[in-house]
Amino acid sequence: MIKPIVISAVRQEINEVKTLLFDAPELAYQAGQYLTFVHSQNEEVRRSYSISSAPGLGEPLSVTVKRVANGLFSRYLVDTVQAGDTLLTIGAGGFFTLPDNLGDYEQVFFFAAGSGITPIYALLKSVLHLYPRLHAVLIYSNRTPEVAVFYQELQHLASQFADRLEIEFLFSNHPILARARLYRDLLEVFVKQYSLTTPERTLAYLCGPLNYMRMCVYGLREIGIPSANIRRENFNPETAHPSSAEPSDTDPHNVTIQLPHATYQFQAQYPVSILQAAKDQGIKLPYSCANGVCGSCVLRCTSGKVWMATNEVLTARDLAKGLVLTCTGYAAGGDVQLEL
């Protein structure tokens, strides 16, 4: 459901990066999630932006937005909106969150590059303020200190939680090349230097450009961090890698979707995704990127099988729970039942 949300304040972070604060105490979310906005001109546009506030700290709901030169909506948010304006949102979503079994872990490593700090900033604040047993390490890469979002706030956290937080700032203009950017050997040095527990009791969160996150994943796996303990956030639909394969079953099938206040049934057939088939019937389902990257369209499959052409967000644990992406999902092998 699309809801109005009022901007209570706008804060300049650095050049071309602003934080929008909202008066929306009724909107539930978790640290690390994103807010999806809906903007309609000639056609409906949906864009997701990371939440930088931490819900457990009494902070107002906030998103931090970096202006993208050819980004229609980011330019509007950074250049035009002001306090008192109303935006439309479908609410918070995403799986880049702290696990329910957080008590099983002792340490969290955060790896951020550029504006990838935004969801990690919310997670880091939550870990430090709400989980006193947990130790945290942040490795944060930028071109220069002047373009590092939340630079002063992070330094304050490092001072406030000196016994539980270590931060390594990496800047591309550093005179020593080995300290200018994160690479696999340096990642290994940092993890071994700051590790206080076993790999199995260590979590890792990554957010930044695709190649940066790939390097981090490979490096972390090489030093023994289980893949199930590594979470990454990716908002760029252009990085999606659709499967070149087709589902073994391309026949039409009935799809039943149970929403909180209504049940819908329609027919879907490859190559039309479940989400597109629903939209063609005028059924409004949650979605944002429509490329299998963000996870806004996720539903739970309770009967039948959904084949996904792209999945850049759901983990093996999510798939075991029956979660599927409707934007790249197709009914395969018979009729399908889904629920929100």
Largest sheet: 6 strands, antiparallel
Using the alpha-carbon principal axes, give the shape.
Answer: globular
Quick one: CATH superfamily of the largest domain? Nucleotide-binding domain of ferredoxin-NADP reductase (FNR) module
Approximately how much helix is present in the residues?
Answer: 10-25%
Average predicted confidence as pLDDT: 93
The CATH first-level class of the largest domain comes to Alpha Beta
Radius of gyration: 21 Å
Kindly identify the CATH topology of the largest domain: Rossmann fold
Region (Disordered): 234-253
Domain FAD-binding FR-type: 1-99
Protein name: Flavodoxin reductase
Domain 2Fe-2S ferredoxin-type: 253-340
What can you tell me about this protein's structure?
This protein is an alpha/beta fold. 20% of the residues lie in helices and 32% in strands. The protein has three domains: 3-93, Translation factors (Elongation Factor Tu (Ef-tu), domain 3, Beta Barrel), CATH 2.40.30.10; 102-235, Nucleotide-binding domain of ferredoxin-NADP reductase (FNR) module (Rossmann fold, 3-Layer(aba) Sandwich); 253-339, Ubiquitin-like (UB roll) (Roll). It is built from seven helices and 18 strands. The strands form four sheets. Strands 4-3-6-1-2-5 form a six-stranded antiparallel beta sheet, with helices on one face. It has a five-stranded parallel beta sheet with strand order 9-8-7-10-11, sandwiched between helices. Strands 13-12-18-14-16 form a five-stranded mixed beta sheet. Helix 4 (184-194) crosses helix 5. The model has no long low-confidence stretch (mean pLDDT 93).
